[in-house]
Automatic annotation (TrEMBL):
Name of protein: 2-haloacid dehalogenase
Annotated signal peptide: none
InterPro entries recorded: HAD-like_sf, HAD-SF_hydro_IA, HAD_sf
Pfam families linked: Hydrolase
Amino acid sequence: MANQINTIIFDLGGVLIDWNPLYVFNDLIPDAERRKEFFDNICTMHWNEQQDAGTPIAQATEERIALFPAWENEIRAYYGRWVEMLGDANHGTVEILKSLIDSPDYRVYALTNWSAETFPIAKSMERFQFLHWFEGILVSGEEFLLKPQPEIYEAILERYDIDRHKAVFIDDNYKNVVGSEAVGLKAIHFTTPEKLAEELRQLTVNI
């Protein structure tokens, strides 16, 4: 087949790695309403994404404290206890990754929204040694780009000479799936390893 898939690109957080700030903040802010205020108005997901796009963590932290001094302890904990927000690997997805890595038929890469400062920490951890299996990883914080911006998909395609018509991208965030498809890169919306395996097989990917 002319457009047979030969390259698989994985997102990391939510697909291969469990990450959840509540692992820290359920205990740090036990009151549910106060915790909701913190995530809705103080350290929001949009704020977190700015560090994934390259804003230095120290700068972002101090700026947030200047705006919300009463929340200083909680704001500092966001990155000060960041490692505790990492859960386990998604072992079902890691098994799929391993089967693709072991096959001579596929090239395997990763494209992740992740701070350039915290990603090396995860990569050095024993339970995430599969991060060393990829032929290449494009980290948003190193590129000053962010999914679903079209430029970040173009960047990984160009850097690793990937034919978008023979590749598929996997992400748990639907807006990133839409962003991928907008540049002509086929995408799978990840929900479970079992569903991912099924959808890859439908694309005639052997796992």
